[in-house]
Amino acid sequence: MIDTYVPCRGSAPKTACGGNMGLRFGILGPVRLWRDGAVVPLGTTKQRLLLARLLLEPNRAVSHDRLFNALWEDSPPKSALANVRSYANLLRKDLDHRLRAHPPGYQLAVEPGELDVADFNELVRQGRGAMSGDRYEEALGHLTAALALWRGAAAEDLPRTVGLAAQLDALEEQRYLAIEECARARLALGRHSEIIGGLRETLALQPTRERLWGHLMLALYRTGDVAGALTVYGEARRALDRELGIEPGPELAELHQLMLNRDSRLSGPVLGWRGRRPRCHRRVVRLRFTGRR
């Protein structure tokens, strides 16, 4: 990836404010609970599925039906309600009474600074604000810190049930959008060579992201590898045809033409080109975080 996002597997990542004491919840990677920096065992897969579903809507009541959907999809057993109560009771002893029944379901109380998703969203918000004000070094700091909170794929240790998949996919989309912004900040700062390897690695996983193809082309072009930049356009064209049956969008095609013409605008400190978002990207949603009630 463009930025290292695995701080230390098994250890508690620090919050956006730099602390890691008390309770800390993680879903940007394997589902985790830390207490004072130490991992708290979470028991069975079903218990972790329950915790994950509640963390996707912190401080909000999640109905039994939505919990059943996360744990058993469309085939909950007759004992589903009793089972959920049992899993909740097993989790509750480690959660300082944060988990409570809230008819018709359960609610998990989470304080600001305790949940990696909330910290990620806040850091990305700050980074985008800095980008819009052309404060690229500041933006890069925020975005790099946001990406460092990821320890792997969202809830990667759990089955991707119907009740979790859409929201986990939305989190992954936010992650890749942050990677795109991070690359754009580095391009604006003239740090072109830093992103080439990471962009190639990311595109191997996400071959339909035209913005990343464009960022890679620009990085190569600005390091003097014009032939490499033009070759990447061909790779992008083949990937889009193979994955989606489409040609590159007008923005990427225009960038290619500018490179063929050795246009002087490509050497400027900042390029306004942003590229087309991937055709197959999933809807991005922001998790609501209102603080403890």
Automatic annotation (TrEMBL):
SMART domains: BTAD (SM01043), Trans_reg_C (SM00862). It comes from Nonomuraea polychroma. InterPro entries: AfsR-DnrI-RedD_regulator, BTAD, OmpR/PhoB-type_DNA-bd, Sig_transdc_resp-reg_C-effctor, TPR-like_helical_dom_sf, WH-like_DNA-bd_sf. Gene3D superfamilies: Tetratricopeptide repeat domain, Winged helix-like DNA-binding domain superfamily/Winged helix DNA-binding domain. Pfam families: BTAD (PF03704), Trans_reg_C (PF00486). It comes from the Bacteria. Residues 12-110 form the OmpR/PhoB-type domain. This is DNA-binding SARP family transcriptional activator. Residues 12-110 bind DNA. GO terms for biological process: phosphorelay signal transduction system; regulation of DNA-templated transcription. Belongs to the AfsR/DnrI/RedD regulatory family. One of its GO terms (molecular function) is DNA binding. Keywords: DNA-binding, Transcription, Transcription regulation.
